[in-house]
Amino acid sequence: MTTPRTEAGRNGREAPAPPGQDFLNMQAHLSEEELAVRDKVRSFVRERIKPNINGWFDKAIFPKEIVPEFADLGLLGMHLTGYGCAGRSAVEYGLACMELEAGDSGLRTFVSVQGSLAMSAIHKFGSEEQKQEWLPRMAKGEAIGCFGLTEPTAGSDPASMKTFARREGSDWVLNGQKRWIGLATIADIAVVWARTDEENNPVRGFLVPTDAEGFSARDITPKLSMRASIQCDVTFDDVRLPESAMLPQARGLGGPFACLNEARYGIIWGAMGAARDCFESARDYALSREQFGKPIGSFQLVQQKLVNMLIEIEKGTLLALHIGRMKDEGTLRPEQISLGKLNNVREAIEIAREARTVFGGNGVTLEYPPMRHMANLESVRTYEGTDEVHTLILGNAITGIQSFR
Length: 405
Hints:
- By secondary structure, the chain is of the alpha+beta class.
- It folds into 3 domains: 25-139, Orthogonal Bundle (Butyryl-Coa Dehydrogenase, subunit A, domain 1); 145-245, Butyryl-CoA Dehydrogenase, subunit A, domain 2 (Beta Barrel), CATH 2.40.110; 254-399, Up-down Bundle (Butyryl-CoA Dehydrogenase, subunit A, domain 3).
- It has 12 helices and 9 strands.
């Protein structure tokens, strides 16, 4: 169990933050271990991602060579315990997501798909044999996973999925299509959710090797968002699987929803990382860009923009921390995750748009990050539940009335 640092420790550890960074001194509420995770990932992003992200985004390249580096940092399945995973707390994982997304949403998404979706599904619902076979390799970055839930006609309504697994002797035969599946063209194993003819809970999860006969995936291109990431269309054409491919502990849609909540949690933090990067770049630009004989940061309207951005970042980051503490305590409810995801992504997009205006015309180039973050956040706003879906989840929690159907 860790405790926050003392005042003397806080004051003696590092120089004062730049103006506007951690304005409310949130780090006073972080332990030494939590700060060490944050600082390690922040340094990695500064040294490895930020110098290269413009080229990766411009050329629509996911840098696969970075996967072992993520593994060396302990980022892959970092909040899972055992099987070579780092066993970090929810808050530590959230801080890592925030720093990664300050670099780029697409690269944070890799960590999320690998750890919060694919590895989490195996860890929560897999057999011991499945865990031993896949989790240590995935934690080391030696195997990549993907998570197949969304379909061309089943996005916000996964209960209407058409992918179907039928019994044939002791095997299962899988047919169907999935869409917007992160990492599928570079993955070694796919966690696939499909309908079956079982009674009561017909949706089951399967581990599908991507080299299985009948499995095919192709990148979705061109994209205007998440260009340094991979999203795919996937087709299953009579993919034959043994009984041992089924995730034995997952029955019904509760299985994939539990994994989605893990990913949504990381987004709550990650969105604030993107927002912070937009704010800091706009503040620095406003202090150096001169018009009418003085820095534009001296003008009231520009200061108002910076202040509004800062307020929402501080509020959203404190919200993320509070939700993370509840997650570590085991008291967090799914609708509370929805509140965090809805608020923080929505505010991050507004911050990115406002930050872009500080740059004027220069803001539409890749020389500055707000418009790249803005484009990426449109995907973040959509995946793991749209604004509308999370609004209705919260509406149901408030009124007790289910309004989806």
